[in-house]
């Protein structure tokens, strides 16, 4: 009788473990409660990683400070760095302010946002800027000659604008085309409206024409988005995007041509036939407020505004196999993370955007050695 009781207990334990494993797999869209890990804290002021190895002075370095709501950075071949500031100015770190973009209207989350260099920038000096004007959101191409910014042409316009949900990230993909993320402009129905450019990821050629194999015969690449603000490609050239959810349920999405990502019908890991669920979401009681993103050695790294962290999603076969939180609250709100040509991470803070608590010297451009993320 005693042996039978012990056997029943052992069987019960195995059944419980099986249920937990199955539950963890079936709820992989809600990955946070299952394998959410926080990195050891870093004492930024003293440059020492608590409980581990010492940090050299060059591991965390402030490159620029006293910035005004910076949004994006780009690296030039002379080792200088361009920074777009939401209020309308474009800075060159090493030579100060280049030019204030007169067409920019900075209200709420609108203003001078995304920036991308043409893949052949070294020969044509083309710089692309996403901005809010009095009429719309648009992308304009400029020529950057020394410190002179010369308008070349409007690449795309008539993207709906609003005080919030303007999207704004732009990047050239490995296919040589320009990808543009747009928000729903606080009109949720526009995300499902294929006649509107709001709530979409767009794909254009260098001159603003739509790409021939785009799924709908226009600029739209995917739709059903709320407010996507991060774009990055992994080592297999898969496109990923970060997206702000409603209060919580922020998303990391694997973007596929022609797919519907569900907003406002679904969000997070909710499901509906014909709609794509997030590969990873923040959960119902935790907010990342994700923005810029980059890929490095098997992981996607993205910035958290409200989450005040750098998030790492380790990728295997188009899925997230681990998720780690880095530098939680060490720098405050983080707008973007970029991988520099020196294979160092560069982040920009956003504590002066009206939602943060500015610290001395904010906002900042900070260089971080990737070894601190191990």
What does this entry look like structurally?
The chain has 374 residues and is mainly beta. The chain has a single domain (37-373), classed as Neuraminidase (6 Propeller), CATH 2.120.10. It has helices spanning 2-26, 32-35, 121-124; strands at residues 36-38, 42-43, 48-49, 60-64, 70-75, 81-85, 89-93, 96-100, 112-117, 126-132, 137-145, 148-159, 170-172, 178-181, 200-204, 220-223, 228-233, 239-243, 251-255, 280-281, 290-296, 299-304, 310-316, 319-326, 334-339, 345-349, 365-368. It has a five-stranded mixed β-sheet. A four-stranded antiparallel β-sheet has the order 4-27-26-25, with no helix packed on it. A four-stranded antiparallel β-sheet has the order 5-6-7-8, with no helix packed on it. A hairpin with a 5-residue loop joins strand 25 and strand 26 (345-349). The protein is globular, with a radius of gyration of 22 Å.
Overview in brief:
This protein is mainly β. It is 9% helix and 39% strand.
CATH class: Mainly Beta
Fraction of residues in H or I helices = under 10%
CATH architecture name = 6 Propeller
Number of strands: 27
**Average pLDDT, all residues:** 88
**SS class:** mainly beta
* Widest sheet: strand ordering: 1-24-23-22-21
- Radius of gyration over alpha carbons? 22 Å
- Going by CATH, what is the homologous superfamily? TolB, C-terminal domain
**SS element count, helices:** 3
How would a crystallographer describe the biggest sheet?
A: 5 strands, mixed
Could you state the order of secondary-structure elements as H and E?
A: HHEEEEEEEEEHEEEEEEEEEEEEEEEEEE
Principal-axes shape call? globular
What is the CA-CA span between the terminal residues? Answer: 52 Å
